[in-house]
Design goal:
The complex is a heterodimer. Helices cover 39% and strands 13% of the residues of chain A. By secondary structure, chain A is an alpha/beta fold. In chain A, the strands form 2 sheets. Chain A has a 7-stranded mixed sheet, with helices on both faces. In chain A, helix 4 links the parallel strand 2 and strand 3. Helices cover 43% and strands 21% of the residues of chain B. Chain B contains 6 helices and 3 strands. The radius of gyration of chain B is 14 Å and the shape is globular. The relative contact order of chain B is 0.21. The chains are: A alpha/beta, B alpha+beta.
Chain lengths: 380, 127
Amino acid sequence: MDYAATTPVDPRVAETMMRFLTMDGVYANPASSSHVLGRTARGYVEAARNQVAALLGATAREIVWTSGATESNNLAIKGAAHFYADKGRHIITSRTEHKAVLDTCKQLESEGCEVTYLVPVKDGIVDPQQVADAMRDDTVLVSVMHVNNEIGVIQDVAEIGQLCRSRNVLFHCDAAQSAGKVEIDLSRMPVDLMSVSGHKVYGPKGIGALYVCNEPCVHLQPLIHGGGHERGLRSGTLATHQIAGMGEAFRIAGEEIDAEGQRLRALREKLWNGIATVGGVQCNGCLQTRAPGMLNVCFEGVEGESLLFALRQLAVSSGSACTSSTNEGSYVLRALGRPDHLAQSSIRMSLGRFSTDQDVDVAIEVIREQVTRLRTIAVC
Amino acid sequence: MGIEERQMNYSNIVIDHFEKPRNVIEGCDESALSGRAGSKSAGMLVEFCLDVSDGVIEHAGFRAWGCPHTIAVASWLTEEITGKGINEVQSLDLDMIASQLELPAEKWNCVLMAEDALRDATKGTSH
């Protein structure tokens, strides 16, 4: 129940990737345009680029391969901040972003940028008006994620993007958790930069992409130099097998997104209804506006580390890190105003392609049993 | 710390007492000695309840809110101190408890908290 952390590689994806990993497969360097083997590899890279672009409603030319969403976020935020430094040095983001965004912003602060960290409203949603209120004349970039990686809520990126476009401010969106799960149509959504990852969509780890809007044309200062690959934005020999795998993963996700979304939504509702009967349970983040397979709940009267250990057979995750020196709960949940003891007793359950009705039945039974047991032990 | 890393830090004896805690109580009789230490905001809260007769603990019970180590230490101590005199409880060997339960160094505070709760229960007693 931890599909939000990563997903298994779909067997169809693995089969595709194998074609690029054997002696008789397509192993040539896609940059070797002087021979047919290289050009063949290049063809597969471009086919995969089209597959990723298709899922996002983008054009292939707007997709830049990276090593994953973390690199994409770095390239988008640092790349834009550095390129447009003369225009301004103010960035707006939210406190509930992934660390790949927050730590990148922290780095830019050390370089002289100013960053405004918005605190989402109670349900975890960033109100576009908050973004509008935070904008300044020197604002160059807004970065707000699509689906939150801990609580699963969906942000109104279309509205925020529209606002940014009207103010001539770049808008970056981390869509690592939403691509393939929530509909994205960049032909209609005014987003300038979007980060996606392969391994969250049943593709391989170590591959991702950054959408860089072509119209209006967005410029970035690259992070990696050497060879001028990917239109100079990301040098380095392209990993054909990873790219082909990500392309296939995105193709499958696009085909199955509607049916899978419906199935996961039903499973998640069953899970929530089953868990809620134990009492003293609250859903973190808006229950309605969320990715189909994600649920984050806190249990009153139980401690987080004990809860997580008691539920270890379910492979759920927690944003909290209980150590002797820190007892802080998830920074996302604290940003939403959850007190530490409730933030700490929160678990994220994320369902995915291979989750079954039976998995949910087992999860409900185990959670009910263990929460009740821990509450019996607990002192008030 | 990830879940796998955490699981590596749980000894078999900690897992045993966490999954099958001994002497969990619902409440404490007025005639019994009770004491507690810690707070939820500090991440752990331990309460002991001791039935004492002639300076000897006839039964020890506990309730705890905290990590698996906190629960395991409290549970283990209820067995350890039953039949012992109050004086012995007031001079428990921290190293011995940590060693018996194979606690990682960062979890020794669980023993200290339990020790404080026992001291609270036995304060004012002089046997």
